[in-house]
Amino acid sequence: MKEVAPKISLKNYSMCLKDAVEIFTKELINCLFDENYQQEKGVATKNKFFKILERLSIENKDCFWLDFESSFTEIRRKLDLDAVFALNSDPAAKSLREIYLAYPGFYAIAVYRLSHQLLKQEIPVLPRMMSEFAHGLTGTDIHPGAQIGDSFFIDHATGIVIGETTIIKNNVTIFQGVTLGGIQVKKSLASTKRHPTIENNVTIYANATILGGDVVIGENSIIGANVCVTESIPKDVIVIEKLENKIIKKTR
Known about the structure:
Low-confidence stretches: none
Number of helices: 7
Strand content: 5-15%
Largest sheet: 5 strands, parallel
Number of strands: 14
Distance between the termini: 70 Å
Shape: globular
Mean pLDDT: 92
Helix content: 40-55%
Structural class: alpha/beta
Strand order of the largest sheet: 1-4-7-10-13
Order of helices and strands: HHHHHHHEEEEEEEEEEEEEE
Radius of gyration: 20 Å
């Protein structure tokens, strides 16, 4: 018998909802960092949230908003730590304002921290829509289910993938092209830890890949560029891929 996909009501599934989530996400970021904007647009942002939940057939909208709004202070605290850590880590960074306004990795982290809170409140779909909006905008794909500690810095945010069950602790820096993923992609493993754990004070350089739910990268370690790691690494080590560069004199 031919399998037929279930029909989805256009009331709950449409490009209009996607547009609404993108506008809502932008306004949330503005409210988070600009008190004047929050005073002027706070009610409008709240109403957008209510309309999105209504489209998703979610009740008790007021309770969801109160819990979400009460988390803003802690989210802002974490983002300020992220920004200071970025400023202190990146020799090209000249000011906190530059981090806030010009670093796509910081924007991706900000959206992650907001969407992670919504996921903790068990709101379906919306957190993933927010994270995919940030993904398209920044090139950084952070699943809202990941657990990320304080002082997280993404340098040159392009091609980053951070899977759903990833755990990243404090003072961690990652560069472009880094994948924190799973080895197995079977649906039956969905409820298991499929992505790695990154301990405190770790740096992961460009195009490194770390795979597997049992993999732990120890404290104070450095994962070099282009390395693929599929087993745990102890603390205080440097992992590099030994490449031999061949230098040939140019002939005329």
